[in-house]
Amino acid sequence: MAGPPASTLEPVTADRPPSVLREVSFLRLWAGSTASGLATWAMPFILGLAVLHSAITPTALGLVLAVRTVGFLIAVPVGGVLADRWSRRSVVLWSSLAAAVATPVLAMALGRSVALMAVAGAVIGAGQGACRPAFQALTAEVVRPGRRQQANAAMTLAVRVTTLAGPALAALLATVLDVPTLLLGSGVLWLAAALLPPRGNPAPAPAPAGAGSGRPGFTAEFADGVREARRHPWFLGGLVALAAVIATGYSATGVVLPMVSRDRYGTEAVLATAVTAYTAGALLGALLISRWRPRSRGWAALAALACYGFAPLSLWIPGPVALVVVAYVVAGVGIELFNVPWFTAIQREVEPRRLARVSSLDFMVSYGLAPVGLALIAPAVDAFGPGPVLGLCTLVCFLVPAGAALVPTARHFSRGGAGPAPEAAG
Question: What is the pLDDT of residues 2-26, one digit of tens each?
Fold first, then answer.
């Protein structure tokens, strides 16, 4: 049997367009996903402005953001089941519309009713959560297999840009608009997210199990998605590695970086510079992986994920500010060199009718463990000091992805050995 294809840059041939961004259907999907990302990242910043303007209290802000997270986590598995049961396009439409309708309610309740703000925040979070696995599955319907890595790179590039542009754009508009108007603007973004994406080409529906058989319930369908995930050892190993990095490295740097910036370097500028360096690295990583096809894509992705360990390492070992900046650039590059092949492998390997449910497991772990890690790391730092906590987190970030690379099928993120040639024409 021929070995796996060598690492290469994707060729451009006459029957393959030079960029997936020239495909109108993907452009619509990309624009809708980007609009939802802008709305998602701008909302906390806009509410922070409301605190600065004394329109709401910090306690109210914390409550709204907390219930938004709860709504998100509850809706992710629901959205995964619905997106596999019905049209992925419809789930994107109705979940984004729910967030679009709830946003004006939040603006109206601002400073008047904390309870109504909390309800609106929960609905917005639920809309965000339900549309995430649907967007992921819809990408597989809209984009041919041979273009998906480039498409996923474009999607994750948009996420990183909106991470910077959402708050920055809100800050710029805040000079001429009040907070309720800014919130209404984010509602318009949710409306765009609902209306822009195209219809996909879903997999054919499964044959009925027998005469008179009814559709399984939600729990049974979600369990079916879990069984599908268990069929892919590389997915379980990668998910454990991702969970470990998020719960330790990501959370530790979120808690300790502000302390190190203040206590070791005597300025908050290091905090801002490191965060910017991480985002810049992620942008670079997304651009690189849109063209790079590693020989052993799974091992390369897990090695890149382990690079996040350089972030807590740079905070653990005293050094110049430049060391922290470089470490965060490397961490940012690494996270995207993992994310894009990871998303592409899920879309390629998972049974299409179960894709949204498996994707929902990924999002539940990715988003769900972040607040858990943050909640546990802070007491650990208080009890043991930042040094031991950062040291342990560094080791976890390096060793757990290395362990995941030993899982069967992890080398190529494929149950079929080397699997299909990366980005073979679809």
Answer: 444 444 444 444 445 557 777 888 8
User: For the whole model, what pTM was predicted?
Assistant: 0.81
Nearest to 137 by CA among 215, 199, 228, 190: 199
Spatial CB neighbours of 16, under 8 Å, sequence gap ≥ 6: 146, 147, 425
Which residue matches tokens 């099928």?
Answer: 409
Say which residues have a Cβ less than 8 Å from residue 311's Cβ, sequence separation at least 6: 249, 253, 278, 327, 328, 331, 397
What is the 3-state secondary structure of 58-80?
HHHHHHHHHHHHHHHHHHHHHHH
Provide the pLDDT for residue 167. Answer: 64
pLDDT digits (tens, 9 = 90+) for 55-90: 888 888 888 888 888 899 889 999 889 988 888 999
Q: Extract the runs of DSSP E, i.e. beta strands, from 248-400.
A: 292-293
Close Cβ partners of 405 (under 8 Å, ≥ 6 residues apart): 237, 298, 299, 302, 303, 411
Instruction: Provide the terminal-to-terminal Cα distance of the chain, rounded to the nearest Å.
Output: 22
Backbone angles phi, psi at 16, to 5 degrees: -125, 120
What number is the average pLDDT over the span 236-255? 88
182-211 b/e (C-beta count within 10 Å ≥ 16 → b)? bbbbbbebbbbbbebbeebebeeeeeeeee
| pLDDT of the residue at 265 | 87
